[in-house]
Amino acid sequence: MHSIGVLKLLHSALTANGTRQELLADAYFDGRLDALGVYVEDSAPATAAAATAAAATAAAATAAAATAAADDYIPSSSPSSVPREDGLSFPYASFVSRYMSPNLPVLLSGLTSSWPAAETWVTPDAEPDLAHLGRAFRDTRAPVHFTALPPGAASVFGAPPARPLARESTVGEFADWWEEHLSARGEAPPGAPRELRYLKDWSFGPSLPAAEVYSCPRFFREDWLNDLQASYRFVYLGPAGTCTRLHADVLRSFSWSSNLAGRKRWYLIPPTHTHLLYDRFGQALAPHLHADLEGGEGQLGTFPGLALAREVAVEVIQEAGETLFVPSGWHHTVENLKDTLSVNHNWLNGYNMRGSWGKLSEEVEALRALSLREEKVEQEGEPAADAWVKDESEEAARRQQEQTVATTEGDFVLLYDVIAHQLGLERGLRPDELDTIEDVLGSMVESVGRGDLFGVKEKGEGGWWRGEELMEVVRRRRMLV
């Protein structure tokens, strides 16, 4: 208890977020206390070797816990390189057994050759055809990410120097900017400020019919997420130098990305090494794998695990015509090495749904603990020194908390709806799929029973939560298998 108290005081004094007491035990047992000790002793290790040694200390302390907490589908080791397979001849059963079930990445060739967009969206020189796209989708709205580069700045180690600003634009406006960007490329005087734009998450729908662009490859058609609402299918279009910062995909979904034109560089980090990607307090995710180096030696202690993360990261160079399968829970960064056009999906099925709920349940329990903490404070009060947020950051913390609750609630509802939709379909479910649904749904029912954080039983006319009823559907389905 004394160590916990010391950790609480140090955490309050050294972080802007103060102390969340419900997370202190986790921080004590998963190795972050060691990382905090490194910071207290020397907040700026003098060398990369020192940072590596500090990360090794924290990693050793977390290894057993991380291995025990890893989901069954997450492998204990990772590939040193990503294999390539001929997507036209590779059997689906082999894809499942070698890659999807063990949750490992693979590059598949040849899957885009018959797509309509392979001709209509790409020039004879194998470049994205912005002239065609600008004409065909002139007024179609799409999100565009703007990155302002200060004089002399560039993307740092495959990531923009600041978080891009997302704005609604039109494909026509983006195509016009692209033409100006191409004409000015290489002609800007040294030291002149620049701006990069990246059209991302352009969703397929009525204004962008998927059938006119591509057909979903056979490896990825067992897609429970897009079966429900088809809203996780996107086009990405960006010039060389545009990037996507370090992240893992929503709900620990699988994803696949097919390059119609261009070249991408990916860095993939296995789920067993996720803890290396966070700051010394285990709270802030690094923007990219070299964030400990971009600010000089003073930044080495901020992300003490990144030196080791770079050693286990898997680099992938994805060419035009290749499709990358990104497994569940693998954090990754992406950089366009050439002007690049791609089609991307996020997707769930019976092979990764346990992992989706595993991640979501952690977030739900963290919110439950916070809710209990706030109730205790309201009922009993607490000394100002023990408040989990400082006065000046209370409003920002409140907004962050509201956003976290909304996101977690949305993910909870989405996963429930995915399950309900699959149980409502006439197609038969395999025994292993029923096992997964029963496990996940049963855990969700238990979670709601211990406290309905999101009021799911009261939402909608008469309430839409039917967790217990759906469990009976699972049992009846099992009798028919």
Automatic annotation (TrEMBL):
<dbReference type="Pfam" id="PF13621">
    <property type="entry name" value="Cupin_8"/>
</dbReference>
<dbReference type="InterPro" id="IPR041667">
    <property type="entry name" value="Cupin_8"/>
</dbReference>
<dbReference type="InterPro" id="IPR003347">
    <property type="entry name" value="JmjC_dom"/>
</dbReference>
<feature type="domain" description="JmjC">
    <location>
        <begin position="205"/>
        <end position="364"/>
    </location>
</feature>
<dbReference type="InterPro" id="IPR050910">
    <property type="entry name" value="JMJD6_ArgDemeth/LysHydrox"/>
</dbReference>
<protein>
    <recommendedName>
        <fullName>JmjC domain-containing protein</fullName>
    </recommendedName>
</protein>
